[in-house]
Automatic annotation (TrEMBL):
Gene that encodes it: GSTT1_1
PROSITE patterns registered for this protein in UniProt: GST_CTER
MF-aspect GO terms: transferase activity
Gene3D superfamilies named in the record: 1.20.1050.10
Keyword set includes Transferase: yes
Every GST C-terminal domain range: 1-119
Designated name of the protein: Glutathione S-transferase theta-1
Entry keyword annotation includes Transferase: yes
Organism: Bactrocera latifrons
């Protein structure tokens, strides 16, 4: 998925390089990300409850981790992707407190990094 690339160019590279993200590049990556989410939704979630069937699998865990990267920096992956949103909620429910714990830790690390270098954060969509 394009999620990791979007996260890297929109958030990680600016933090590491102390520079704002390239708006033109982010625009292209946003289009690519939306297309990838549409393809994921249509291919994997068209008939199944989870990625490879009716039960949660490693594929769902990997996919939710990918989708969380841009989500945690302000991108709405569920806009125009209703099946994706329902799948996301099912996966979170299946993972229960384990998902919540990891998600909170990841979000806390992002916010800590932002506080250390606030002048380079341009996370508005």
């Amino acid at each position: 998925m394009a999620c990791g690339n979007y996260f890297q160019q929109k958030w990680l590279s600016p933090i590491l390089n102390k520079a704002s993200p390239d708006d033109k590049n982010i625009s292209v990556l946003t289009e690519c990300l939306n297309q990838n989410l549409k393809n994921f939704e249509n291919h994997f979630l068209n008939k199944n409850k989870f990625v490879i069937g009716e039960n949660i699998s490693y594929a769902d865990v990997m996919a939710i981790c990918e989708i969380d990267q841009p989500k945690f920096i302000g991108f709405d992956p569920f806009n125009h992707h209703p099946k994706l949103g329902k799948w996301y909620d099912r996966v979170r429910e299946e993972l229960g407190p384990y998902y919540k714990k990891v998600a909170i830790e990841f979000d806390n690390k992002l916010r800590t990094a932002e506080k250390k270098i606030p002048e380079v954060m341009y996370l508005e969509q």
